Amino acid sequence: MAERNTLEKLDFGALSPEQQEKLHQFKVKTRIANEKYLRSHPEVEMLLNDFLRLFLCRCIPGRAISHRQYPSAHPKPSQSLFWRKRTGNSKMGLYREVLILSFLVQLATGNWFNIMSQGMMDMPVNQSAIGFPRLPADFREMAKKLMSTCFKKGYQVPVMNNSLNSSYGQMMESPISIFSELLSSLPQSSPSHLILQSNETTEEHDIWNIAEKMRNCTNMGHVIDLMRNSTEGPRCFMRAFMAPLSWMTIMQNGTELNKEDLIKLLWVAKPFLETMPPSSFVLPAFSQSSHMAEMMKVFSEVFGILPEEQKNTIIEWVKERVAQNEFNCSLKPLAISNMPPGLLQKPNKDVSPIGAVGVPKAEGNQQQAMNANQKKQCPPKMLWLKAKVLTMMGPFLSRLSLEEAKTIPQEELCGFFRTPDFSPSFQNVSGMQPNLGRTFFQRLKQECSSSDNITHYMDRLGYLACFFDGAQSLNLNLSRQLLSQIDTCNNPEIDKMKRQLVQNILEKDGSSSSPEILHSLGSAISTLPLSRLSRFTSEDLNNTLSSLSQVNWSPSQAKTLAKKLLETAKNISGEKLLSLGTMVRGVASSLLKNVKAEGLLGKESLKNMSEKMSSLQRTALLEAFRRDVNASELVKGLPDSLLSSVSLSTLEKADVSSVDQLQGRGWTRAQSAFLLKKILGNKINLGELRKLGQAVQGVTCEMIEKINRTDALDMAQALNKSCAWLSRVQVRCAAQKLFASLEEQRPGYFSDIKNSELQAIPAMLLIHLPVEKIQNLSDAVCPAFMEKMKEVNLTSLPNSSPARYALTKRAISCLKGNVTDLSAADVLTLGPLVCELDPAWISSLNSAALNSTLQALASCQYIQQQHRENLFRLLTTTYGDPTYWSEEDMRVLGSLLLLNDTAVEKLPSKSWIMSYLSDLMVSLPVQPVVPPPKEFRSWLDLSALRRKLFELKTTTTLQNRRKRELPSLVLPTISYIEDLKQGNVYWTPLQFNQMTVQTFKDAVPTLGQITNYSTEQLAALKTKILEAWGSVFMLNESQIADLGCICQSFSTEELGNLSIASLDTLETLTVCNFTQTQRTAVWQAYEKVSGISVAGLGKLEMVGLGQFICGLQPGQIDQLNSSSFREAAEAVGHAPCPLNIRERLKEKAVATFGKPETWTEAQVSIMGNIIAGLSAVELGSLNSTVLPFIQPSAIPLIPSDRLTALSVSQFKALGPDNAAAVTEAQRAGLKVDQRAALDEAVGLKTARAEVPTVNNTVISNPGSGGSATLPLKGGAAVESMAGCVLIVQAIALLLFGYIL
């Protein structure tokens, strides 16, 4: 291009648009090529850094650069190319230096300062200078996890050169270098749902441009500004990387950040907050109201994702800040001795440059803590929830305690109710406790509006509309309005309210057509009985398909609607299948097995759809996909809901050869064991262990034992991060490995263990410490021990374990002082061990501590059997007869009434009692279908509670009825039946007999789901069948499916003549308790109607048969297709067949999988109850490593004379669950040493840890391993000189001339 003095104006018209575009592309490619060259030659940057160091240190008069201001100007000897050359040839090094200095002087006398000033002018004047924080040990893991989500979203991973950034990061002491390192560790192949860019060249250029700019970022503010101006893909990865850094910056420098910087950091940190585990959740110490409000805005945005524990922590954090700011008091005075780690530490002067923005002063933090300690104690009932705080709390108001909600001043609550912020605060807050919701609604109704005009504010109630009372009195418009607001409600009374509103609409709007009714009812249409749903035409349903596909249908309703929509279709497209939404539960498996994988596999919509399907439907869909794609593509594209149904033989054919392919997938235990054996064999290292995710279920005790003893602590901490997926036997093996390794490192390790060493041991393993070692723990480790006890989950210990008592006794001894002097707070430091306290010890507490302890006991999942009677006596002594308890006492202590069935039965018939018991029933853990062994079973017996709820919901004796009036016999109605659900089992045969025929027809799908009717109840229900349909032989298949477990009332002859041709019907019936003769009759009915032969049973048929496969004759088992049996073995293993059938199934398994001594962990796991068909010799031949993988349901089925064939070592290897499943009858036939081994396997007898011989090798402190906590102080990265990037290219070009 011509010089400016020879060409006044550039001739832009000389090139055509096409030529200009080609020139532009040439420049882009050239720039990228140059960048690639420079990044592949890191020595160039080292030379340039030496140039700048020499220039800045010697060539600028009066400009002395300190190490603290510009550490990059003083590289370490190992980083300097000139330093290395000087060591070899000092004269040559000096000569080169003189040449370089002369070059830089000439350059500086020319345009250097012009370039520098221009660069300074280009810099934003007010650009934030938020310093980089110090990195915790697990930063890479946190950042990589977040960055992986960007890849899963479909964004292409930017390709960056790692070598240049690494050298830069070392010299600049910046975490930016880690960014490229983590990018390179992500998969480079794009996922199937990759978001394609419209202009790949522009995107590539943008990635390189960002890479260059990130290298020049010297603080957090620079990176955040760069991030905001980036395209969506790179921004996702940058934000994921910076999110943990931003949160750490807020934690370390929160008190000194200005509001603008805080808003920036919170925006970046949001992805980290969405995934932060509760154990790492810590809140900053700042108390500025503006800062707190900004924090709460972000927390409100992620409210739906946060665990309940974190929501409660945030509420306490806000309350403490408000107490300090508004009331000048403290809720929990902070003693100096109990300050968080690092608060009293001296500042680390080597970490942060002087004057860096956002670096906390340790002395200041200490002073703040001391000031907080000097604040007065807040009063017990501090009225802190003013209107301003209510606005700031937003959705967290839905997690307030009941007491807090009741103490909100009326004027503050009503003032808040009238503001625009009220309604958003109660949107999307599902999970709100019903009693809290009712309290809020009643206060608004009674205190902020008159009872008759609360309907004027209906649209402002948000989630509180779920607790509206008096729905029966609403007019048509209000009924429709309220119905539209309660779609997302899940409180116990909501179904009853929806039924009432639907009844209002149907009664008061008789003129509306079917389509209008479908639109107006919304999700409440699911309250309509089948007789009403069946009246809608397929056209009506298709016109409202988008809304119907979102409704939560019962299986019978979904079947009715799907049948209407699909009519006589023999095939269904993937698009049509997806359009059905929740109604997919009603699609026949015969249709699903013909669906094409195209358009479904790898889609998010497939995940949502398959989650609604039954086991048989998932199997049918997999069968269809398997015909279209190979095993590798199938496994790769399946969501977790379908992946769990993939057979081992399919996994064997799939290309899964690396643990990296296991991460983030929902593998079953059998699949995990199979894949780990396939990929790793019998040995695993720490790196592989950390990558397993849910596949950790397949780690065997043999693998744990083979881990190096020096890595045992790291192994334990890695397993602790996957504790949700660990079995009891894995936890036991890990604990034994860890304790033996620690004792080997230092004899008597636990007798003189330090606090830091105890803190490093995961709580889930610590509770398995041998009893004698628990007893001998030093008082010096009480602080760490008590902290660990707050984290423990005692469910991995058997209920009768001696360790429970030992842990409790040791924790009590750490409390010090007399029992009568202990405060409530002291006792609550016991954590879950409160549930193990002896009532005699509890009774010795002072009144405040006693009340607090009893309230804590109400949350216990298990209370020792020997403590229950005395505990209930203490409860009634303290609070009186439960019949006269107040509502407040009942809500705090009510669950303890389950200790005594008589107390539950005597509760008065009051409306609030019924509401509370309904809430209690919903809050209790769901009871497993197969109850666990007694030693691991919850103590809660809900039979008395269910009976009382049935009584309260069906009684006609109101509280104000005269006592002389006798209650009449209550008849089952559709409203009662739908409300009671499983409670319908308490209707008497007489009440069933007097039920109307229409009620029975409408309620059949609900009544048919109950599995435990008595013989008399079944006889009464069969009478209603005859009244409704005339004869059992006249029932069609839909009616049989709806009748469900009521079919147990049919005789063998009646069952054998049922019209059953569908596997879906058999799947519906398989959950019921049929006898063996009934199973045979049902199988014969299916065989006759469907025309299928035993040899023709495929995988789908074997899965669909369920328990009815037990109905085959012993000789027919041999006819089963071996290939299909291999695929369906897991489903067949669930069947509760008698011994003679189990033995024939075992023979089929031996013919298919080989001899039992060769069976692997995965194969034993899928065998299920078939294992109980093994002979004594075959049981004794099983490898000890596979015994923990036997399904516990199979253990009680093993004949006692065969169980004795197991050796002592085999009994020890059974694992806690299987050992606990041994029945008393089986146990009686065992020898003394076998029973002792069985007790040891359960955990009732604590084996002494074998301490191996210790060598003289000095072992480093194991407490130093593991993840460090987030530091409390941080520092900012150095600031580079503005404009230096502009000169780098010019220097680089001239440099080559000097070198050459």
From TrEMBL:
<dbReference type="InterPro" id="IPR026664">
    <property type="entry name" value="Stereocilin-rel"/>
</dbReference>
<feature type="transmembrane region" description="Helical">
    <location>
        <begin position="1280"/>
        <end position="1299"/>
    </location>
</feature>
<keyword id="KW-0325">Glycoprotein</keyword>
<feature type="domain" description="Stereocilin LRR">
    <location>
        <begin position="453"/>
        <end position="600"/>
    </location>
</feature>
<dbReference type="Pfam" id="PF06060">
    <property type="entry name" value="Mesothelin"/>
</dbReference>
<keyword id="KW-0472">Membrane</keyword>
<dbReference type="InterPro" id="IPR048992">
    <property type="entry name" value="Stereocilin_LRR"/>
</dbReference>
<dbReference type="InterPro" id="IPR010335">
    <property type="entry name" value="Mesothelin"/>
</dbReference>
<dbReference type="Pfam" id="PF21058">
    <property type="entry name" value="Stereocilin"/>
</dbReference>
<protein>
    <recommendedName>
        <fullName>Stereocilin LRR domain-containing protein</fullName>
    </recommendedName>
</protein>
<keyword id="KW-0812">Transmembrane</keyword>
<keyword id="KW-0732">Signal</keyword>
<keyword id="KW-0130">Cell adhesion</keyword>
<comment type="similarity">
    <text>Belongs to the mesothelin family.</text>
</comment>
<feature type="transmembrane region" description="Helical">
    <location>
        <begin position="94"/>
        <end position="113"/>
    </location>
</feature>
<keyword id="KW-1133">Transmembrane helix</keyword>
